Amino acid sequence: MLNMLMRQLIVSLAVVAILPAVEAQHKSKAAAKSAAPAMPAFGNADSITQEELRISLYFLASDAMEGRNLPSRGFDTAALYIASRLAEFGLKPMGSMSNTDGPLQPYLMPFELVTKHVIAESAKASLTAPGGGRGGRGGFGGGGGRGENSGPRTTDFEYEKDWTVVAGGRGAPPLAAFDANAKMVFAGNGYVIHKTNIDPFQGVDVHGKVIVVAGLPPELAALQGRGGRGGGGRGQNPLGEACKDFLTPEQYGAQNGALAVVHVADYQQIQTMENPNAGFGGFGGGGGGGRGLNGPPYSVPKLHSAETCAGVPEINAGPAMTEAIFQGESKSGAQIFYGAGSNVKLDSFELNSAKTLKLHVPVKSEGGHAENVVAMLEGSDPVKKNEYVVISAHLDHIGLSQPLPNGHNVNNGADDDGSGSVSVLAMARAYAEGAGKGIRPERSIIFLWNAGEEKGLWGSQYFAEYPPVDPAKIVADLNIDMIGRTKGPGFTDPDRTHVLVNPGEILLIGPNVSSDDLEKTIETVNGSYQKLELNHFYDVTKPDATHDNLGPQPNGQRIFYRSDHYNFAKIGIPIAFFTTGLHPDYHRPTDTPDKIDYHEMQIVSKTVAAVAWTLANQEGRPEVKTNLPEQLIKDMTLAKEQGWGKVTPVLAPLPGEPQ
Ligand SMILES: [Zn+2]
Fold this sequence. Notes:
The protein is an alpha/beta fold and 659 residues long.
């Protein structure tokens, strides 16, 4: 009891003592506030000019940047350009902290790349079959006469001429060395499709064997040429989700103990084999190293793959190898090839058990470097400055292309995403200049230029997996990708799937899916500032009659999942994505700075800068919605399981990194 009285007395004495101090602090804060020059409603956003946007864009989207493919000299030069401007603005570098050379590397956040290629001179493939001696190679129905039945005969095949490895490049499995020496089974196109009860493996045992397949399911065959083999491009797979709704032959093989898959090469793959350097980059024939206009395919060893369902290695067999594989079988190589080409259903069967295919695929790896560019304006509030608003764009584009009739062969990427990159640069300049005049937000602003968005959102995934700051302190990611084009008079676009805005309009994606609070903030700011028409056409994930133009049912819209903001959403951060949409110059050498609507870029940049300012000064933080889309919840769970989001010191500069 006594103790209780004593304690109450002490507490009230303490309060009496402290109160004046707290009040004094509030008073001084208020006084400071009233003494400081009146803070413009949206910081220094108003200072962003069309001219600064135009000047920077003509540099970033010039032919000299060679289309800013990652990795390339053009990309490195673009990264140095941004870093040099940030150093000029005096913003805080958020890149490498150690072993840096010069004033620019501290703005670069490096991550390792690796390219793997088959060591062609020692890659081996041979087929041993009953029939005696070493056999010659012939095309369909040609040569390779059979000797009388005097013991097994082995035929060797030349790498790249008679067969290639399917690996590397977008949508194709990572390249890995492998060996196999086994019997074979033929399994039609090899796809197991649950919804239509298709299972070509009924009655055949693939364990310890090589699976031979030809052709694709009709739904996928229809997509051929729009990225990768099995709909691995940007749209959604018509068969549904791999490993859930269907299994590729490689995935079935991995789940049933097969060693590898041999694809009977189709016409286009045969073309690639016959013209290895003809730049047919899109057909997954990436295993051969230096192919294509933009160098070999790279991957990022440190990134976790979204692929949760691995497959066994796969090769393409050209006509000679196909002929030999089906020699003496119920169907000849020619029948299989033409059957697959015309989508005829090909029944599965075990090949002659005396026949074995031996494969030896050695692989060489070479390291490479990539770098995000990152800077920060530190907030003014002693507590809130440890919370961050991220403003992001991607700096890379798709490099060189086949020349146009006028010889131009650079994908300049003025809109994609040159417009976003220079917009973030102008905001960085405005914020830095404002801070110099005492116009500094309470929370900190991080300016982020991602690398490798075109390759698969690499840079933003690296940032989300290995963040330089605590992701729980990131208030929101405002991502910009393509804000430079609007419908002018007489505008037409043959591609009905493209949606482009009118001047003064912007497509806003994300708030309706991930955060109502963020939506409210954007609407309030916009309503009292540039008054853009906020178009939520893509801000959905559920399909409906008007929205399903980007990817077949059942998953509907994909834009929410298709740019760097998505990696922030995966670690639970509210996101807003700003874009003016798609147009006929998308991913073409005609995406040039002379076609850009600089007024549109200016008003969108001011709006994003103003939203960031408001988020950086408001009391509370926008919350993420509870009822998120199924796909996002699944990806958030996987990211958690894979350990994304641990604060990680930025690597020191990598060999070959620009300085
Ligand atoms: Zn883009």
